[in-house]
# Entry
Amino acid sequence: MAVAAAGAAENARRHRERWLVAQAEVDRAWRTYDEAEVAARRSPVPYCPRRAPRTPAEYASRERWLHHAAMTAHWRGDLTARQLADVLAHRNGWDPRRHPAEQEIVLARAVRDGRSAGYRAAAEREQRAWRDAELAAESARALAVEAYAAAERLRPGIVPVRRSEAVTQTFAPVGAPVPRTARWRPARVG
# Structure
């Protein structure tokens, strides 16, 4: 029982370490999300759209700007490969004809939403790790109690007590001989 209790205690320690790592990941994910939220709320420099008709060269310039900004965001890790593919294919609301200020707003919101999803996933992992650590700790406590009870039953001179009689524990007479087979020996841990 003592060996099982020691193994359970080690298992509980490992689960607690995993939970602490998951907690640090949640904190990191929250900080990155908060930075993205601040950036998304910040409005770009106000612009005044021109009244003149737009030329194909201007549209090409806007498309190049969008692709460059999206590639840079992807290299920083702000956009996933799927989001980058959507930008390059002009799907899911990515319109290269928009003004670069509008594109910057859409890009900042996409980064914020991605980091928000990352934070939620990290929080779920942290909650699972916390539950696992609590279960492992409870198992270790239960096994430690059982190991202690087993060691108490094997001590010389002590009469085993049933759980219902735990309050009125009785001991063997002080001078009573102890048989050699009933000697108490501590369990090895290691």
